[in-house]
Amino acid sequence: MSAATTRSRTQRTPRTPDRLCAEAIGLARAAAEEAAAPGVVGEHVEVVVEGDRVVTHLFECKELGYRGWRWAVTVARASRAKVVTLDETVLLPGPDALLAPEWVPWSERLRPGDMGPGDLLPTDAEDLRLEPGYSGEDEPPPNSVLSEDMAERVEAEDAEVTAGSPADLTVTPARGSLASIADELGLRRARVLSRYGLHTAADRWEESYGPKTAMAQAAPAPCVSCGFLVPIGGSLGQAFGVCANEFGPADGRVVSLSYGCGGHSEAAVMPKPPRPAPPVLDETRVDVLPLRPAPDSGSVLPVGAGEDLGHS
Ligand code: SF4
To answer: Which residue of 9, 20, 61, 91 is most buried, as measured by CB atoms within 10 A?
Structure first.
C-alpha cells in the first residue's frame, strides 16, 4: 500500500465514532458472548472507528491462556438508517497479548548436530554452497586433438570416466588414474562445493579452531609445525589440516594451520627418565649375613661363623 493511499484512507476515516454504532455495546456484547464460551467476555475496553458508520467494540477476554486478547465486534449502520447491524466477531490479540513465537520454517530452524541416525536432510536445488560438478560447457569438441588424446588415455587406463552419469559412479578410482583426477576436479559428482560453500566452511572452521581462539593464543606453537597434523587435499589444504592427537582438544577436527594447542608434538618433549647404574658384582669378598640369633646375646649368628672358610 502506497503512502498516498494510506494517507487518503486516513483522511477518509472519521475521528469521532458514529453515535448509534458507538452506543450499540449491548448488541456487540451479545454477539461476543454468542461466539465465546459463557462467562469469558469481560469489560468493554474501547471503541475503534473503522470508517463512516462502522465501529469495532473491544471486550476483555477472560479465557485462560488468552491473556491480553480481546473480543472485537464490528458493527455498522447504513446511511440514513437507524438500525445498527452486526458485521463480524473475532478474537484479536491486544498490545500486551500473550502470543506464540513467530513460525520459522524447518530449514531455518535446523542447527548443527540436529541430525540423527536415519534422518534425511534434503539439499535445496539452488543451494548456494553447491555448484554443478560437471556442466560439459568446457568439454573439447569431438574433432579436437585434445578430445582424441583424452579418449586414448581413458581407453588405456580403462577408466570409468565415461560410464553413465557422473553421479552414478561410486567406485573409488585408483590413485593417479585419470578417473581419480576427474574425481579430484569434481567430475564424478553431480555437485561440488561452490566458492561460497568453501568460504563459509573455512569461516566456520576458523571460528572453532582458528588462530583467534583462546586455545591457539596460548599455544606454544601452531599446528603447521605439529607432527599430529594430517594434511588435506584441495584448495582448503592450504589453510587447514586434520588434528590426530587423541589427547588434544581438536582430535579428528579440521584445524587451521595457525591454530595450536598445548599438545603440540614439539612444544614440550618429555625428558628421558634417568637410567639406573648397572649392578656391581664383587666376587673378591664374602658378605656376612645373619641367619639366626646368637644363643647368649640374642643377636644373630653370621653365616659361616666358626667354620673354616678355607682362607689361609
Ligand atoms: S595437537 Fe594441537 S598443535 Fe598439534 S595438530 Fe592437534 S591441535 Fe594442532
So the answer is: 61
- Among 245, 256, 257, 266, which residue has the most ligand 1 atoms within 8 Å of its CB, making it the best to mutate? 245
Q: pTM value?
A: 0.50
User: In this structure, which residue's CA is closest to atom 8 in ligand 1?
Assistant: 223
Residue 179 phi, psi (nearest 5): -65, -35
pLDDT tens figures, 208-234:
999 999 999 999 999 999 999 999 988
Say yes or no: CB of residue 255 within 6 Å of ligand 1.
yes
Does ligand 1 come within 6 angstroms of the Cβ of 245?
Answer: yes
Phi, psi of 13 (to 5 degrees): -70, 120
C-alpha cell at 310: 678355607
Q: Name the stretches of the chain with pLDDT < 70.
A: 1-14, 134-180, 182-188, 295-312
In total, the chain counts a number of residues equal to 312
Nearest CA to ligand 1 atom 2: 261
Ligand 1 pocket: which of 217, 258, 259 to mutate (most atoms <8 Å of CB)? Answer: 259
Between the CA of residue 300 and those of 165, 268, 287, 303, what are the distances in Å?
A: 95, 54, 14, 9
Distance, CA of 259 to CA of 213 (rounded, Å)? 8
240 within ligand 1 shell (Cβ under 6 A): no
261 lines ligand 1 (CB under 6 A): yes
| Joined grid coordinates for residue 116 | 540423527
